[in-house]
Amino acid sequence: MGSLVSIVPAVASASYALDDYARQQAEAQYRQRQEQWRYYREQQRIHLAEQRQTAAEEARIGDIRADLAAGDTRRRDALRRAMAAQRARLGARGVDPESGTGEALLLGLVDQAELERAEAHGEARRSLASITADRHWRRKRNLFERQRYPDQQPITPPRPEPERRGLVAGLIDAVNPF
Question: Around 6, how many Cα atoms within 13 Å sit in the side-chain half-sphere?
């Protein structure tokens, strides 16, 4: 019996040490899971922001193209009206629209309309190039971030916290978290 009494304090001390170790491991795992969740939520926020940015860019591209098409239609209609009015004025003066003077006046209207069209298309190309450059820069930055932090990829939610089932189960979870 005497030898059993001398073992009890040693077993109790070992049990307390194991409990303390298990608690420390559980707290470390909890902190790690919390950090994983924070990282996951931040990555999700960034991903959603990028999706919104891409959708906004696509909408802007669509607007630019629609504005360009509407402007072309408006300029074409305005050119037709201007040419009809110019032919009418030339006819009222007795000048043949097919003669040198009449043709020069009509070609001047066509050239002016083509210049306006070229300016509008140039502005649209610059806007589209700016959007494309921004998108390219963002893609390069994202690739850089993936290369810089390869251990953080892919974005997946962390595993849920295991249930606490007592000392032995806690020790097993602490030693083998998977």
Answer: 3
